[in-house]
Design brief:
Layout (H helix, E strand, L loop, with lengths): L9 H13 L2 H5 L1 H35 L9 H9 L1 H33 L5 H18 L1 H23 L20 H8 L6 H5 L8 H30 L2 H6 L3 H5 L3 H32 L6 H4 L9 H17 L6 H25 L13 H17 L1 H21 L9 H18 L10 E6 L6 H11 L4 E9 L4 H9 L4 H7 L7 H17 L3 E9 L2 H13 L7 E5 L7 H13 L3 E6 L11 E5 L7 H15 L2 E8 L5 H14 L7 E6 L2 H7 L5 E5 L6 H11 L3 E5 L9
Parallel strand pairs: 1-2, 1-4, 2-3, 4-5, 6-7, 6-9, 7-8, 9-10
Antiparallel strand pairs: 5-10
Helix pairs in contact: 1-7, 1-10, 1-13, 3-8, 3-10, 3-16, 3-17, 4-5, 4-16, 5-6, 5-13, 5-15, 5-16, 5-18, 6-7, 6-13, 6-15, 7-13, 13-15, 16-17, 16-18, 17-18, 24-25
């Protein structure tokens, strides 16, 4: 933004366009009808209920603008800097269209008033002439447009003076509550409500203000306050000057009751022109900001600014859009939809402030503070008002916003600022974690949350797909590797940190061939495919002088954090010399009450066709729960078949074994196509004759015997899983 373009103060840049849009045609042509239907008391209630939206939004926006460095685009800038560029664009695009089409509505209103004086003039010619004149004013520059609005403001003030000098019938009895004979309460409210939606005209000038942090709060809140007083005074004077019957049947009652009819007629012309000019000045600035962030087609063209900072390309584009709208004819049918977009915008402003206050982030330190109830009431009342005015258009508007948001997310927009979405979800997660910590934990809520120590990330790619099949779709995964430091490296790092940059430390503390950054990169590449499938996955590199010490620390830390893992996944090496380390790892998992899964991967067949799973269950096995749950996960993700196998000592036990397996299938709610297989003989002999499978699952004994596990794997000649329950699992829950 050209610094010279930031030249407007509070009065001319914010208050004037806002108050002129607020004091519009509704005040001149419909407020009398509202009073006739509702009485002064009912009209006062309608005015106050409508003003709740703008008062809460004005207060919320004042709080927000004193906390962020607001750019061009007004409401769009505020929302995008708080809730993200995607949300800002999804609100900003409909808001721009609303302001642009509102220009057409105001021009049509001016044309109708003009034709009441000159009925012989051509409708389209009058509308197009007015539009061209407004475009010239806005194209030359906002400064000229603001000066013209001073003239219009003077005309409106004179018209109000003329009205308050009128005498009319001078009734003395106030109508506190009308009979709503021509329309029910909420219909009257819906007709009046557009009168209070003018604060966006001032907000849209945010990029052209000398001091937006000061001007926006003061200008908008002042316009809201003055508008409220004027509407209450006009409603009271209507009730005093005319009967309800006259007000309900004569839309031009304000002209007829005024001291000088011409002054009110001029006020009608001025109100329509000022509202149209305010939208025509503000709307293109929203479009320019959208173009600057590549949120709309023709972004480079629309983002262009003149040397004085005027969005002239956006103005020309808006002029064409408005002219097309005028040529298409009646716009009254979509007017409610435009109101919905304004309400959604106001609601999102309130919601953004509510979110930032409720999550308590440190960066939210506005100099203008509002109680939490203000944005809460504002966002809630905006939503309620939408459905009170028109439920169908409210639903359509929400659907349109959602579709635009999804499109913007797909585009992958990036912005140079941060937003609070991450903080919001962190707050939700923290709240959920605190609530979960207070609740008793049952096996019914178990799901596979694996912690996986990886010795060398570069050679684990073939195993991650298998691990994914154990946790997908609702489990989570924590993967870490230990970078073993050589003797004396700890002291070396401590000395280096005191006098070197982090990059220099990285370069001078290499152990072997990999630095921590390189290991992190390998680890990220390893887990990236799983992350893309939506599985919550955390990966990190731990530095320690011993692999086992590193794993021990990680296991202790993770078990005492929110969302702790419940299963540790280990692998058995072909090198028997590493068996002692595996036994120590299992001892750590037992101490930390983690379930244990040990994989022995067949060097040739690996996981075969990933179809058949042999699940070996001896009677009364203490490890059957984790074994069954793991088998069910693999069966679902492999689209395979589970075969339950039991070995018996005598033929007399066959019937009882079959019945026991059937009971497991029934109580564990295993798939109907689960196969049962009972074998007679010595366990080792049965292993050599067992039905072929892509994976065999066994329970582990009380004491881990790696030699025995290795023997089983060699006898059965397939990949094997050896599991141990932690006691927190239940396949029957």
């Amino acid at each position: 933004m050209n610094s010279s373009s930031r030249r407007f103060g509070t009065f001319e840049g914010v208050f004037t366009p806002s108050i002129l849009t607020i004091l519009g045609v509704i005040m001149y042509l419909r407020l009398g009808w509202v009073v006739g239907n509702a009485g002064f008391g009912g009209a006062l209630l309608i005015i106050l209920l409508a003003k709740v939206v703008t008062i809460t939004t004005g207060l919320a926006m004042s709080s927000m603008t004193t906390n962020i460095r607001i750019g061009a685009g007004g409401f769009y800038s505020i929302i995008s800097r708080s809730l993200g560029l995607e949300m800002g664009a999804s609100i900003g695009i409909p808001l721009y269209l609303s302001q642009s089409l509102a220009v057409a509505l105001y021009v049509v209103g001016f044309t109708e008033a003009w034709l009441s004086i000159f009925p012989g003039h051509d409708v389209r010619l009058v509308s197009s002439t007015v539009l061209v004149g407004l475009l010239i004013l806005s194209y030359i520059g906002a400064k000229l447009a603001m000066k013209v609005q001073y003239i219009i403001m003077a005309v409106i003030v004179i018209s109000l003076v003329s009205f308050f000098l009128g005498r009319g019938e001078s009734t003395t009895q106030m109508v506190v509550w009308g009979d709503f004979s021509t329309a029910p309460f909420w219909t009257v409210f819906a007709i009046f409500f557009p009168a209070v939606t003018g604060i966006g005209a001032g907000a849209a000038m945010s990029g052209n203000l000398r001091d937006p942090h000061r001007s926006l709060p003061i200008g908008i809140l002042s316009a809201i306050g003055v508008g409220l007083l004027v509407y209450i005074a006009v409603a009271f004077w209507f009730d005093r000057l005319a009967s309800s019957e006259l007000l309900m049947t004569n839309y031009k009652a304000m002209m007829d009751l005024a001291r000088w009819r011409w002054a009110v007629l001029a006020g009608v012309f001025g109100a329509t022109l000022s509202s149209a000019l305010g939208c025509l000045v503000g709307g293109p600035r929203i479009l320019m900001a959208l173009g600057q962030h590549r949120a709309v087609p023709l972004a480079r063209f629309l983002a262009h600014q003149s040397k004085k900072g005027e969005p002239r390309n956006a103005i020309l584009f808006t002029g064409v859009l408005v002219e097309v709208s005028l040529l298409l004819g009646d716009l009254n049918s979509i007017a409610p939809l435009l109101t919905m977009f304004f309400l959604i915008t106001y609601g999102m402003i309130n919601l953004a402030v509510f979110i930032e206050k409720i999550i308590g982030i440190t960066s939210f330190r506005p100099s203008f503070r509002v109680p939490l109830v203000v944005p809460l009431v504002g966002s809630g009342w905006c939503l309620i008002t939408m459905f009170l005015i028109n439920p169908i258009f409210a639903g359509v508007a929400i659907v349109i916003i959602i579709l635009i948001y999804m499109f913007q997310v797909k585009k992958g927009l990036t912005a140079p600022w941060g937003d609070v979405r991450g903080g919001l979800f962190n707050a939700i997660a923290e709240w959920a974690a605190k609530m979960a910590a207070r609740m008793p934990q049952y096996a019914k809520s178990w799901k596979p949350n694996l912690v996986v120590p990886v010795e060398d990330p570069r050679v684990w790619g073939h195993l991650m797909r298998f691990i994914r099949d154990i946790v997908f779709p609702k489990g989570n995964l924590r993967v870490f590797t230990v970078r073993v430091l050589e003797s004396g490296v700890h002291q070396k790092i401590s000395r280096l940190v005191k006098r070197l940059s982090s990059k220099e430390v990285e370069e001078q503390t290499k152990v072997g061939e990999e630095t921590p950054l390189e290991l992190e990169q390998y680890l990220e590449e390893l887990v990236s495919p799983i992350r893309k499938e939506g599985i919550f996955t955390a990966a990190t590199v731990i530095e320690s002088d011993d692999f086992l010490k590193g794993i021990n620390v990680v296991a202790q830390v993770l078990k005492r954090m929110f969302f702790p893992p419940n299963v540790i996944f280990l692998t058995m090496s072909e090198d028997p010399d590493k068996d002692s380390r595996l036994e120590k790892l299992v001892a750590i998992s037992v101490r930390e009450k983690l379930g244990t899964i040990i994989l022995w991967l067949h060097p040739k067949s690996a996981f075969g066709r990933e179809e058949i799973i042999n699940l070996w269950l001896r009677e009364g096995s203490p490890n059957r729960n984790l074994a069954i749950l793991t088998a069910l996960q693999l069966e679902k993700n492999w689209n395979g078949t589970i075969r339950l196998i039991r070995v018996i000592d005598s033929e007399e036990d066959r019937q009882r074994a079959v019945f026991g397996l059937q009971r497991i299938v029934e109580r564990a709610r295993m798939p109907a196509h689960t196969e049962l297989s009972v074998h007679l003989g010595d366990f080792r002999e049965v292993l050599t004759k067992a039905p072929l499978a892509d994976l065999n699952i066994f329970g582990m004994g009380e004491a881990l015997d790696c030699g025995y596990l290795r023997e089983i794997a060699q006898l059965i000649q397939s990949s094997c899983l050896f599991v141990r329950d932690s006691g927190a699992e239940s396949a029957l829950a």
